[in-house]
C-alpha cells in the first residue's frame, strides 16, 4: 500500500520590522482555522504563478492595508505536518507605507524582540523567531595574545561596526585565561547590547554566564541531543549536509556553513561556492551564516541565497 501523498503548501510570510529595529509585527490566527489562537507572521498562500514576493505584497495589502516598499529574503522553512508539507517563504520587510491593522478582524500587535519568545506560535514558525531575533553579522574573534589589544579590537567592532553577535574563539588560550577573557568580553558585549557565545564545552557556561555556546563540527557530530537549556543560544560549525542535519536534529538555534570561498587559513579545503551553499541552506531548517572569505560586501548576496547573513574574522577583527 502506498504511503499517503502529502499536500504541498507554499506560504509567503513577512517579518515586518519597526523603523528602530526593536519590534516586529505579529498577528493572531482565527480560532476556526488550523492552529487557531496561535500567533504568526502575517502572510498567506501563493496563488498560481505568483512568486513569494508578489504573494506577500498582495497578502499584506489584503490583511493589513500596507504596501511593501523594501523587503529582503529572510529564511525558507520546510516543515512536515502529519497531513501536509509546508514551505514558508519568509521575507524581512524593512520599509512599508500605511499603518498596519487587522482588515479581516484579526488581532495584530507590535512586539519587542525581547518579548517575542513569550508568544505561542505554530511549530513551523519557530526557526523564523530565531532568524528575526538574530543580527545579520556574526563576529568570530581572532587570536590576540595581548589582553588590552584584544579588548580594544572587540570594542572597535562593537562601537564602530555595530556588531551584535560575537563568538569568543581562541584555541591558543588555556581554560583559565579563556574564562578570564570571556568575563571581560561579556562585560563589553553587555555594554553595547551584543550577545556573546563561547566556543568550547557546555561547562564553560557554568563559569561565565554568556548568551550561549558554539560547537565545533567534531563536537557537534558526537552529540545525540541538545547539551544546553532552551534559554541559551546554541550554534555550531558545519561544512556539509550531514553536519547541517545533525545540527537541526539536536536543536541548534543557528549555524555557520563554510568555507564558501577558499581562505588563506585553509587553502587546501575546496570551497562550497554560492550554488551549493544555496542548495544546502534551503533545507537547513535554521538560520545559517555564510563563513569563509566573507566581507560586508557579500551580505546582500548571502541574504539573497537564503543565508541569515555573514560570519567573519578578518572583516570585523581589524
How is this structure best described in words?
- One of its GO terms (biological process) is thiamine biosynthetic process.
- With 318 residues, this protein is of the alpha/beta class.
- It has 2 domains: 117 residues, Nucleoside Triphosphate Pyrophosphohydrolase (Alpha-Beta Complex); 176 residues, Alpha-Beta Barrel (TIM Barrel).
- It contains 9 helices and 15 strands.
- An 8-stranded parallel barrel has the order 8-9-10-11-12-13-14-15. Strands 1, 2, 3, 4, 5, 6 and 7 form a 7-stranded mixed beta sheet that branches.
- Helix 3 packs parallel to helix 4.
- It is globular.
- The model has no long low-confidence stretch (mean pLDDT 92).
Describe this structure in a few short sentences:
The protein has 318 residues and is α/β, with parallel strands linked by helices. It is built from 9 helices and 15 strands. The radius of gyration is 20 Å and the shape is globular.
Number of domains: 2
Named CATH architecture of the largest domain: Alpha-Beta Barrel
Per the CATH scheme, the topology name of the largest domain is TIM Barrel
On the 0-100 scale, what is the average pLDDT?
92
Considering DSSP H and I runs of 4 or more, what fraction of the residues is helical? 25-40%
Strand share of the residues? 25-35%
Largest sheet: 8 strands, parallel, barrel
CATH superfamily annotation of the largest domain: Aldolase class I
User: Assembly type of the shown chains?
Assistant: single chain
Count of beta strands: 15
CATH class of the largest domain: Alpha Beta
Overall body shape: globular
Label the structural class: alpha/beta
The unreliable regions are: none
What strand line-up does the widest sheet have? 8-9-10-11-12-13-14-15
Helix tally equals 9
Binding site for 8-oxo-dGTP: 29, 40-43, 125
EC number: 3.6.1.55
Protein name: 8-oxo-dGTP diphosphatase
Cofactor: Mg(2+)
Amino acid at each position: 500500500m502506498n504511503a499517503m501523498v502529502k499536500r504541498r503548501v507554499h506560504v509567503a510570510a513577512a517579518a515586518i520590522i519597526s523603523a528602530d529595529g526593536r519590534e516586529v509585527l505579529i498577528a493572531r490566527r482565527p480560532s476556526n482555522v488550523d492552529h487557531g489562537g496561535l500567533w504568526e507572521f502575517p502572510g498567506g498562500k501563493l496563488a498560481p504563478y505568483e512568486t513569494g514576493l508578489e504573494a506577500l505584497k498582495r497578502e499584506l495589502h489584503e490583511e493589513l492595508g500596507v504596501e511593501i516598499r523594501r523587503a529582503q529574503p529572510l529564511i525558507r522553512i520546510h516543515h512536515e505536518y502529519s497531513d501536509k508539507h509546508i514551505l514558508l517563504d519568509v521575507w524581512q520587510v524593512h520599509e512599508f507605507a500605511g499603518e498596519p491593522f487587522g482588515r479581516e478582524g484579526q488581532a495584530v500587535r507590535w512586539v519587542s524582540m525581547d518579548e517575542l519568545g513569550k508568544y505561542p506560535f505554530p511549530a513551523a514558525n519557530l526557526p523564523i523567531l530565531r532568524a528575526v531575533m538574530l543580527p545579520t553579522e556574526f563576529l568570530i574573534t581572532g587570536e590576540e595574545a595581548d589582553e588590552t589589544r584584544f579588548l580594544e579590537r572587540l570594542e572597535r567592532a562593537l562601537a564602530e561596526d555595530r556588531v551584535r553577535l560575537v563568538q569568543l574563539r581562541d584555541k591558543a588560550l588555556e581554560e583559565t585565561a579563556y574564562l578570564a577573557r570571556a568575563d571581560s568580553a561579556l562585560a563589553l558585549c553587555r555594554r553595547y547590547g551584543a550577545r556573546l557565545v563561547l566556543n568550547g564545552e557546555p561547562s564553560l557556561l557554568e563559569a561565565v554566564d554568556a548568551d550561549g555556546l558554539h560547537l565545533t563540527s567534531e563536537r557537534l557530530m558526537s552529540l545525540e541531543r541538545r547539551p544546553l537549556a532552551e534559554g541559551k543560544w546554541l550554534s555550531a560549525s558545519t561544512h556539509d549536509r550531514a553536519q547541517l542535519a545533525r545540527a537541526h536534529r539536536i536543536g541548534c538555534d543557528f549555524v555557520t556553513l563554510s568555507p564558501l570561498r577558499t581562505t588563506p587559513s585553509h587553502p587546501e579545503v575546496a570551497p562550497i561556492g554560492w550554488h551549493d551553499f544555496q542548495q544546502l541552506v534551503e533545507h537547513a531548517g535554521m538560520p545559517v551564516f555564510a563563513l569563509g572569505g566573507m566581507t560586508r560586501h557579500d551580505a546582500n548576496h548571502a541574504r539573497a541565497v537564503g543565508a541569515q547573513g555573514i560570519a567573519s574574522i578578518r572583516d570585523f577583527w581589524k
